[in-house]
Amino acid sequence: AQSVTQLDSQVPVFEEAPVELRCNYSSSVSVYLFWYVQYPNQGLQLLLKYLSGSTLVESINGFEAEFNKSQTSFHLRKPSVHISDTAEYFCAVSGRGSTLGRLYFGRGTQLTVWP
Amino acid sequence: DAGVIQSPRHEVTEMGQEVTLRCKPISGHDYLFWYRQTMMRGLELLIYFNNNVPIDDSGMPEDRFSAKMPNASFSTLKIQPSEPRDSAVYFCASSLRGEGYNEQFFGPGTRLTVL
Fold first, then answer.
1. What is the mean pLDDT of residues A71-99?
2. Distance of alpha carbon B92 from alpha carbon B97, whole angstroms
3. Over the stretch B42-94, which tens digit does the pLDDT of each residue have?
4. C-alpha angle with apex B72: B102 to A51, nearest 5 degrees?
């Protein structure tokens, strides 16, 4: 099975500052990795995913994450945040080739952007 | 596609009453997941189905909870009798195993309040 650790439960930052949300995973097999975002009173939405190829993946709203196999990490970064980025962010992992169909989610990181 | 549809969006009930939450997955998806989200416990997987068959119900908290998937386009999560500690947001998600990497699509959630 797989597991995910999100090291920070809350990350407060000021607008236009850079941010990094940390995610480490554990797995005995190769993985697919995901970041989901949950805005207040909404469901989870896929932000970005790593499936194969380039280890750096980007979202349409300026977030990026880098898959680091040696460190088993998939940290999420943004060079300059906006107030509208305030949300909860979940890292998730799936075993490559897994027949079980499920994702394993971290506990989430609440990102709060202050003006 | 309309996405994953959940109903009702909000439910307020009294302790001891039966509660039924409903979910319509994305057409063609063969996996369906029920999650519960609370401040204390975060996002918990309750049960998931593959091709309408329950695969893993180890997350169901107790016998008061039951879930069914009578066909590929409909699932229910029932709580009987309900208790105040069941108050949470319940999410349904679906995915298509054929894509191989288990990306899940979430519904908007049902916010349950048990008085």
1. 91
2. 16
3. 899 999 999 999 999 999 988 999 999 999 999 999 999 999 999 999 999 99
4. 10
B42–A107: do the CB atoms touch at under 8 Å?
Answer: yes
Dig out the tokens for A69 from the structure.
Answer: 């196999």
**Residue B41, C-beta contacts closer than 8 angstroms, at least 6 positions apart:** none
Q: Establish if A50 touches chain B: CB-CB under 8 angstroms.
A: no
Beta strands (DSSP E) in B1-115 are 5-7, 10-13, 19-24, 31-38, 42-50, 53-56, 65-71, 74-79, 88-95, 105-106, 110-114
Residues in chain B: 115
> Which tens digits make up the pLDDT trace of A36-70?
999 988 999 999 999 888 899 999 889 999 999 99
Task: Measure CB to CB from residue B95 to each of A36, A96, A101 and give the nearest one.
Answer: A101
